[in-house]
Amino acid sequence: MKWFKALNKNQIPQPDTIKTIELAGKQLCLINNKNEIIATQSHCPHAGGHFSGGWCKNGNLVCPIHRYEYSLTTGRGAEGQGDYINIYPTELREDGLYIGFEESWWSKLWG
């Protein structure tokens, strides 16, 4: 796992809000759901809707276009959707919020 500093503590989204950031070449959505910070991919896999216009409901992230829902814990779509979103681990440290990305075996070997 490779960790990148995403935000300073004063930049963390307020409760019940979604913020878009760019980090390590990826566009991510940071969601403050009940004071837990969750990092996800920024676009819905179904129709490409941007999650920054979405909202959280019952522990799910809801896409603003077709109202598809994705678990904030597992990334799985609701029953019958057959899709998922990427959820990235987050760590709140003394100096801010960090997000972890899995390293490919190729980058470990040659990185």
TrEMBL record:
Matching CDD domains: Rieske
Cofactor: [2Fe-2S] cluster
Similarity comment: family membership: Belongs to the bacterial ring-hydroxylating dioxygenase ferredoxin component family.
Keywords (A to Z) from UniProt: 2Fe-2S, Iron, Iron-sulfur, Metal-binding
UniProt protein name: Rieske (2Fe-2S) protein
UniProt key word Iron-sulfur: yes
Pfam family of the protein (one): Rieske
UniProt xrefs under Gene3D superfamilies: Rieske [2Fe-2S] iron-sulphur domain
Keyword Iron: yes
